[in-house]
Write a structure and sequence with these properties.
The protein is mainly alpha-helical and about 230 residues long. It is built from ten helices and three strands, in the order αβααααααβααβα. It has one domain. The protein is globular.
């Protein structure tokens, strides 16, 4: 799939999820930014979309912000969502993730996101039924978690051949025009620090009790046209 088709598909995937999330009873409101941290992960197609938005905007210091944030310890994935699904299906022991902690997103301004329109799915799916600031953690319905996993798997599958990584690592790579060009040409490798190769979707991580309720969402994803 060429880059323009990937971006068009990504927009449709976001629209389907945003429609789903609009029907949820959530505590998330404007200026609620407890989940806006450097712990977010995303794919290269999402990072490309964000980098192009940053490049065309007024935030001329965005590369400097990323470079400064990259100097701090930050969470890095060891396996992707689709790798996780395959390993669970095959009964393979999962590697332990290192909790390096995280800080506020370097783009956050007065508890608002200047990239809200192009925020990655890792930000969109951070929803909660309670006020995280008051309760200390998010409360997410099990079905919503299943839906979130489905979309993570779908986006990774759509960007198979690309990479997944921490927000900082992906944008650190996408900050360079030559890397964006390599990605557009399908030539970007995932040997950059913190990046891991995406995998196609082979096993859906949908619990049996959620399958019937999930079917309309699955059908919407199947109906995506580019």
């Amino acid at each position: 799939m060429d880059l323009n088709n990937k971006l068009a598909a990504l927009d449709q995937i976001y629209q389907i999820y945003d429609h789903f999330a609009s029907g949820l009873d959530l505590a998330c409101r404007k200026h609620c930014a407890h989940c806006c941290t450097t712990g977010v992960t995303l794919t290269t197609v999402e990072g490309y979309k964000m980098a192009k938005k940053l490049e065309s905007g007024e935030n001329t210091r965005w590369i400097e912000k990323i470079e400064q944030a990259l100097k701090q310890p930050h969470f890095q994935l060891k396996i992707t969502t689709n790798q996780l699904a395959n390993m669970c299906a095959e009964g393979i022991e999962l590697p332990a993730e290192e909790n390096t902690g995280w800080t506020a997103c370097p783009f956050l301004t007065h508890a608002l996101c200047p990239l809200y329109i192009v925020r990655p799915f890792g930000c969109r799916c951070l929803v909660s039924r309670n006020d995280c600031g008051k309760e200390g953690c998010a409360e997410i319905d099990d079905f919503v978690l299943s839906v979130n996993t489905l979309f993570l798997q779908t986006i990774e599958h759509m960007d198979a051949g690309g990479c997944t990584g921490n927000l900082l690592d992906i944008l650190g790579v996408m900050a360079l025009k030559e890397n964006r060009q390599r990605y557009a040409e399908g030539k970007l490798n995932c040997r950059h620090p913190g990046l891991i190769r995406n995998h196609p979707l082979k096993v859906l991580m949908v619990p049996p009790e959620h399958r019937t309720r999930m079917e309309p969402i699955l059908q919407s994803l199947r109906n995506i046209r580019i």
